[in-house]
Here is the input.
Amino acid sequence: MQLLEDLKLHLLARYPFIYLLTWEEGRATELLRRACDALERPLYRWSVVDGVTGPSGAIPNTRLPSDMLEWVGRLETPALVALHDVHPYIEQPEVIRRLRDLAPVLGHHERALVMISPSAKVPRELEKDVVVLDLPLPGLKDVARLFHGLLREEKIDIDLPLFERFVKAPLGLTEEEIRRVYSKVQLRHGTFGEDQLADVVDEKAQIIRRTRFLEFVALTVRMDELGGLENLKGWLGDRTAAFTEKARKYGLPQPKGLFLVGVQGCGKSLTAKAVADLWKIPLLRMDVASLMHGAGEAEEGLRQAIQIAESMSPAVLWVDEIEKAFAGVESGAAATAGATRVFGNFVTWLQEKTAPVFVIATANDVRHLPPELLRKGRFDEIFFVDLPNIHERESIFRIHLDKRARETAEFDTWQLAETSEKFSGAEIEQVVIDAMFMAFAQEREVETEDVVRAIRDTVPLARTMDERIKKLKEWARDRTRPATYDTRRIDFFEDWGNEEEAV
Here is the structure.
């Protein structure tokens, strides 16, 4: 494990304080034990409940943080002391002073304090002496070992493909959470078959939902449910095998992500959902607006969301309406120190991430976003999603009529497309639903005229926000790639062809 080597390196380099970020105290303790065995140092553990315990048992009068630190100062041999949940006390003036006094002494005598906690609180006075390490969530090998042990214990045999799917299904959870999920499935069904995979996924969705800023999204939208956007679809189709080993051997880098900007209701969110289904990888939605207003929890929430996404990789991380979080983050009242740090951490991760996490950021307006976010290297491409043209509107009408079990041949979809100029995809779906409600109330089948009437009764958002959309299009003209092919040429050649036939 790379983290074990990093930990040993920091200890040998005589770092006095190490912050180990994790929810999993058991795994963290085992990691420290292995490091101590390799370096031939004793391991001591401290908590406010038990005080210090070590190879010879409990050390009296060490429950209070100040008493524990005084004991550490009296140690005369190399040692590693694991501090459990010290973060509530670390900002106390007496604790800060004792730690500052210990900093030059600990390294010199090959002693170190390792603070185990799910969140890092580092007083400004100690920033130069503390190194922060992340304990990653269990990876494929860890989960495979755990699942194999359970199958052997319960004497259950399953084939290799199913074994691999059960190992991948709970990625993103802690080791203890994975154990509980597997135990629940085994107790309920007595086996691990194809039908039980959904139970594992559902349990994971419930657990991830409790992280507050992250949501596990079910793959319910197919790419053929998106009308138009052929340029964007082609770009995504070329990258279907982008995360495979075959692509690496060919010399291709892993794709970083996609920024979708455009008119509200025109398919940006649907595209994020459809990409995950097209590539058959998990989809996570990060509520970045809530994250930024998390009352001091933003940095920890971002770290946890990234850790979960990377542990589930390859995966799609969907950052919806990113402008609600980062617009104006570097100017005016919005430029708080915390917001600036979170933004900096996010764009640094976008630039430097090595895990196969494909980030899809969506925005309705990007004119007030910091330019650093859209700099080359953060995303592979920036696409502009405009209002659907007449060909796309006809396609969208067909999709939504077919979705509701209506025979599209019985509708004049071209007339509907002509009538619904400046309508977004979401508005087209709503007028189909409105027309069906009207027909249902009259106890008859829905017809083209019902949909036309619903269109004429609707004022599209593009008319009420015409100036704003024009400004957005102007911004996007030379800065983005269109998600839709330029159909003006198609219309020209169609008209030209019709004139030729008439002649």
